[in-house]
Amino acid sequence: MVMKIGFIGLGIMGKPMVLNLLKNGYEVKAFDLNEQARKEVVEAGGVEASNPMEATAESDVIITMLPTAGIVKQVLLGENGVYETIKPGAVVIDMSSISPVDSQYLASKFVEKDVAFLDAPVSGGEPKAIDGTMSIMVGGKEEALTKVLPVLKTMGEEITYVGGSGSGTTTKLANQILVNVTIAAMSEAVVLAAKAGIDVEKMYQAIRGGLAGSAVLDAKMPLVLERNFVAGGRIDINLKDLTNVLEAGHEIGVAMPLTSNVVEMFHALKVDGKAADDHVGLIQYYEKLANFEVQMGGKQSE
User: Fold this and answer.
1) Nearest to 240 by CA among 7, 72, 33, 77
2) Where residue 2 falls among pLDDT bands split at 50, 70, 90?
3) Quick check: pTM over 0.85?
C-alpha cells in the first residue's frame, strides 16, 4: 500500500519536492501559508490542507521543509500542529536546515507519541529539487529511514544515513560551511581576475578541470557570468544556517574563523537590501569593496 504523505512548506525547495512525490504516485496533502503554492499542488493532483494538523491527519509520513527552527517547532508542536493529530507508528521527516539541538529536542518529543523523527536536510538547491536529484543526509533511527526510503528516493539521488538524531543537521552545517566559504573564495578570485582584465569565462574554463574545480564552481560560476542572482538558495537563509554553524562551534569549542567572515559579509549584504538574492550574490560584497563590477559574460571592456 502506498504511503499517505502530509507535506508542510511549499517554498523554493518544498514545492518541487511535492511535485516529484505526486509524479511518483504518492497521495500528498500539503499545507503552506502561500495560497498560490497550495493551488499549484492541487493542480498537480495533490490535496490542499488548511493547517498542519489537517495535513497530518491519517498521514503515514509527515515532511516539513521550512525556513527556521522557530517555524518548524510551531508547525510540529504548536496549536493546530502536527503533534495534535499524528498517529502512532508514523514518521516525521524534517528536511529543513535547523540546529542539531533543535532536531534532538523534536525527536525526544515525538518519542512520547510512538513516532519516529528523522532530521534529513538536503543539498543541491532548487535545480536538484526540481529534477529529484538532491543529496539527503539523514539522522535518527535507521529502521525509520528504511521505512521511508522509497519516499526519499523520489526527491533525492544520494540518500546517506549519517547517525543518530541531530547527525543529519550537523552534516548539513558542515555542508553549508563548504558551500558558502567556497562561494566567497570564488567571488574573491573572480573580482581579482576581472579587475586585472582577465576574461572570467576563459579563466573558469582553465581552472575547472584542476584542483580548484568543484560542484560549487560549476553550479555558481555560470550564474556569476549571467549576473543572475535570482535565489535558488537565499542569502538570508544561508546566513541563518551559518549562524547555526557558529553556535554549534562555540558550544563544542571549535573555532570558525572562515565562517565568521562569511557571516559578516552576508550581514553587510542584508543591510544593502540583498537578503533575497541567491548566495552567489556574495560577489556583490567584493565588487563593492573593489569599486568594480564584473561584466555580463565575464569579458571586460577594452
Assistant:
1) 72
2) confident
3) yes
Question: What per-residue confidence (pLDDT) applies to 298?
Answer: 78
Question: Over the stretch 14-25, which tens digit does the pLDDT of each residue have?
Answer: 999 999 999 999
- pLDDT tier, 1 (very low <50, low <70, confident <90, very high otherwise): low
39 labelled catalytic: no
Q: Is the pLDDT score of 77 beyond 60?
A: yes
Measure Cα distances from 278 to 20, 261, 272, 281 in Å: 23, 18, 14, 6
Residue type, 108: S
Please report which residue ranges of 5-124 form alpha helices under DSSP H: 14-23, 35-43, 52-56, 69-77, 82-85, 100-111
Given 141, 172, 220, 274, the catalytic residue:
172
Domains and CATH numbers, the chain: 4-164 (3.40.50.720), 170-298 (1.10.1040.10)
Strand partners, 63: 7, 93
- The partner residues of 30 in beta bridges, in order of sequence, read 7, 48
Residue linked to cell 525509520: 144
